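Pasting as-is:
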Amino acid sequence: AGQLGVPKGEILKFTESIAEIASVTGLTVEATAEGMARLANIFKIPFPEVERLGSMVNALENASTASAGQLIDMIQRMGVSGKNLGLTASQIGGIAAALVDMGVSGEVASTAMDQVFTQQADLSIGEWKDLITVDAVGAMNLWIKKFSELDQFGQVAAIKQLGLDGTKVTEVILSLGQAQDKVNAFMKIGTEAYTENTSVQKEFKTMMEGVGSQVKVLRDSLEAIAIELGEKLLPFISSVIATIKDWADRFRTLDEDTKTLIITVTAIGGGITALTGFVLLFIPRVYETATAL
């Protein structure tokens, strides 16, 4: 968690939230932690409140054909440009869910909308600039509506004028134009879920009623701890590995008589073997046992 930019005083709450979100969405703890941390950084959301992001993603996953992993990835891809336009994480999540529902691939949709958001944010034409400032969603919807009303030649001209990337962008914009009601509905679902912050909590509580789910929660919690512990131990483990590698390199350069002498002394003493065995075998077994539960 520390490597993700989570302050030390907020790591415990962040870890607890990540374990719950992972349990509910079915994502791995590592993927959940990385995704939530990136979204929190993009949208300037305090780390103790990442569960709100989790509730938003979970609610949209339940309401659409988009998976939690798709939603997190798409919101990340569109996040910076969308935020610059004035959109929230929940509103961008609603757009992502609608596009997946319309059959648009996540990568194509994210790339196209990132371009659209960037161009819209850069426009500074009188009433348009004022509208973006007051109502970014309304401005985006109006732009998409006007674009959809153009004939094919007008759409091509508009795309070229804005410097956008042709056919794929046009298809994505037209898909949004055909699904405005769905977009607005998903935006509402995401925004309400983020505000209420109960989606993850309710499903987590329900899951805890089953023994199998409790085992998964335990596994996710242990994995979250293992990730944090791994960050602490990594410098030590790396140092030990580097030392052992150095010993091995030097050993290979020795003559056969010297090698035989060293092996005999090591076998008698046993200390180096025990220490090396502990580092290389015991620590990985602890992690494997935790993740295998």
